[in-house]
UniProtKB/TrEMBL annotation:
Pfam families with a match to the protein in the record: FCD (PF07729), GntR (PF00392)
Domain HTH gntR-type: 56-123
Any coiled-coil regions, as ranges: none
Biological source species: Streptomyces zinciresistens K42
Lineage: Bacteria, Bacillati, Actinomycetota, Actinomycetes, Kitasatosporales
Protein name: Sporulation transcription factor, WhiH
PANTHER family in UniProt: GNTR FAMILY REGULATORY PROTEIN, TRANSCRIPTIONAL REGULATOR, GNTR FAMILY
Top-level taxonomic group: Bacteria
InterPro entries on file: GntR_C, TF_FadR/GntR_C, Tscrpt_reg_HTH_GntR, WH-like_DNA-bd_sf, WH_DNA-bd_sf
Gene Ontology molecular functions: DNA binding; DNA-binding transcription factor activity
Entry keyword set: DNA-binding, Transcription, Transcription regulation
Length: 287
């Protein structure tokens, strides 16, 4: 459980601007959990338990909890976020609340302005390419849209990366890609889905990094997030089998031969959607 909110003072020095004012008030006058009745009353307790099981500290837990509540719509656009209420609701100190709100502001989820306070921003302002927001959307009410969008984005990014990588390949990275395919083969033979998934994620991240395009390289985290939250539309990466493994191998062969067209074709086949397959929504990834 999160520790109780401290009543300490002096966290902001004289004359220093506190962007997230944490108003001091007598205990009797403070607003309790009833101010959050628009959200699921169980969400706070469940969120703390889930976040704690993922090994995050208080700061990470609160970012996770508030982020999920905003993305799910429990805290709608333009909703004021009062730091004191948050601290009491989740039993954390003003420092934890303040730093958590700063993280959420960097993700575009909230804004803090003088004389206005901290408010939830509309979806149009969110950084939808942020891996945390991708995850929160993928396991919330927007899961179908998020997974469709991720599949479409991968279809755009990865075949191009495979073509470019054939012309910018480095022997050490190509060997690493081949090693990942070998690891995936051993994992599949042993029924080790976790090892297969990890090797698959590294394979796709490496492929983008070796493409020689720094802007594409910045998108490697998005592809990794997409693989972690895979579901909905099904690709060859979601179905470990001989055909999937062979296509990964063909990509490596295309890179080694400098054949960008072959590598691109193999990647498109790997990312082919199989709409007839229904997937069960997996649990959020571990950190």
């Amino acid at each position: 459980m999160m520790t109780a909110a401290r009543a300490d003072s002096g966290l902001v020095g004289p004359g220093e601007l506190d962007r997230y004012p944490y108003a001091e008030a007598p205990v009797a006058g403070r607003v309790g959990a009833h101010a959050w009745e628009s959200a699921d009353p169980e969400l706070g307790r469940v969120g703390r338990r889930t976040a704690g099981s993922r090994g995050r500290g208080l700061h990470g837990q609160l970012v996770q909890q508030l982020g999920q509540m905003i993305v799910s719509g429990d805290l709608g656009a333009d909703r004021p976020l009062v730091p004191e209420e948050i601290g009491q609701r989740f039993e954390v100190s003003r420092t934890v609340v303040r730093e958590s709100l700063r993280v959420l502001e960097a993700k575009g989820l909230v804004s803090a302005r003088p004389n206005v306070g901290t408010r939830v921003r509309p979806v149009s302002d969110w950084n939808l390419l942020d891996p945390d927001i991708i995850e929160w959307r993928a396991f919330g009410p927007q899961r179908d849209d998020q997974r469709r969008e991720l599949s479409e984005l991968r279809w755009t990014i990865e075949p191009l990366a495979a073509r470019l990588a054939a012309g910018h390949g480095r022997d050490d990275i190509q060997q690493r890609l081949a090693d990942m395919v070998e690891i995936m083969g051993h994992a599949m033979a042993q029924g080790d889905v976790l090892t297969f998934s990890r090797a698959d994620t590294e394979f796709h991240a490496l492929l983008i990094q070796v493409a020689g395009n720094r802007m594409l390289e910045h998108l490697s985290g998005i592809v990794s997030a997409a693989l972690h939250v895979s579901g909905g539309p099904v690709t060859g990466c979601d179905r470990p089998n001989d055909a999937s493994l062979a296509l990964h191998g063909r990509i490596v062969d295309g890179l080694a031969a400098g054949d960008g067209a072959a590598a691109e074709t193999a990647m498109r086949q790997l990312l082919t959607i199989h709409p007839e397959v229904e997937r069960v929504v997996p649990a959020p990834r571990e950190h």
